[in-house]
Amino acid sequence: MVEVDDELLTIGAFAARARLSAKALRLYDRLGLLSPARVDAVSGYRYYRAGQVERARLVALLRQLDMPLARIAALVEADGVDAAGLLAAYWTDVETRIAGQRALAEYLRARLSGRSSEMYGKFMVETVEVPEQVLITETRHILADELPAWIGASLGRLEAAAEECGGVSGAPFVAYHSEVSTESDGPAESCVPVADEAAARAWVARQGRTRQTAVRVEPARRLAYTRITKAQVAHPQILAAFEAVEQWVTAEGLRYAGPCREVYFADWAAAGPGDAVCDVAFPVERDPGSVGVTGDQQR
To answer: What is the rounded end-to-end Cα distance, in angstroms, of the chain?
Structure first.
């Protein structure tokens, strides 16, 4: 018979005290969240200390919050105040995600119920001619949840670099060469127009391939665009803006002439939720085989 230290509990006794199943305890061990105090080398029996009950219960509660295993592992190793801070940070992330999902559900309800025209009617679509531009760019394969932070950081890096390239000569923008979503990673390309092509090429040559920087000359474009506020830039509100422009392009008998983009013409940090900061735009050209409605605006 195996002799068990008085301080140790069999897995069955420990499971009863922790109000968990033995199966759950084996899972926690396998995941590295709660290891037995001792495993008998001959029988393989697991034994736990009574002092591990609180950790076992904490792990179980955190799993009910759908907390990722890596974050649980960090939290249970942290001291009280730090652990509480980690939990608060996680829950802030959860609430942000839920708010985005709630907005997306409302957007989809409007589409499914046939109220798309109501959404699109909020956007005025116009066209603008953009001259040829020299661009310094940074490209990245990226998913939707990482996109806002990357846009701000990459445009900031490029705008700082523009000082070496004759200065910023136009509104910065982000071009989407393929869909960016929770499952599709683009790529997306941050672009800043600069005044000096030779200096831009010299700057890119010094960068190497550390951030996938490049310089290119974009030809003159005609853009179909709608102007949106800082609040509307958030997902999924921005989807309605993109779709409004797409609907207008189809109605006008135009065809796409390049990747869609978000053009940021205002100081993002200084802007309020209701301030216009961005143009959602598509490069377009006339399709000779199509005849659309007249006019360059839609309300």
So the answer is: 84
DSSP string of the chain, one letter each residue: -----TTEEEHHHHHHHHT--HHHHHHHHHTTSS--SEE-TTT--EEEEGGGHHHHHHHHHHHHTT--HHHHHHHHHS-HHHHHHHHHHHHHHHHHHHHHHHHHHHHHHHHHTT-HHHHHTT--EEEEEE--EEEEEEEE---GGGHHHHHHHHHHHHHHHGGGGT-B-S--EEEESS-BSSS-B--EEEEEEES-HHHHHHHHHHHTTSS-EEEEEEPPEEEEEEEEEHHHHSTTHHHHHHHHHHHHHHHTTEEE-S-EEEEE-S-TTT--TTSEEEEEEEEEEE-TT----SSS-B-
Query: Cα separation of 6 and 47, whole Å?
Result: 11
**124-180 pLDDT per residue, tens:** 999 999 999 999 999 999 998 899 999 999 999 999 999 999 999 999 999 999 999
Domain with CATH 1.10.1660.10 in the chain: 8-77
* In the chain, ranges of CATH 3.30.70 domains: 132-217
Domain 132-217 has CATH 3.30.70: yes
- Average pLDDT for residues 266-283, to the nearest whole number? 93
Instruction: Kindly report the backbone phi and psi dihedral angles of residue 9, in degrees, each rounded to the nearest multiple of 5, phi listed first.
Output: -120, 140
- The model's pLDDT over 54-102, given as tens digits with 9 standing for 90+, comes to 888 888 889 889 998 889 889 988 988 999 999 999 999 888 778 777 8
Judge if pTM exceeds 0.70: no
- Overall fold of domain 8-77: Multidrug-efflux Transporter Regulator; Chain: A; Domain 2 (1.10.1660)
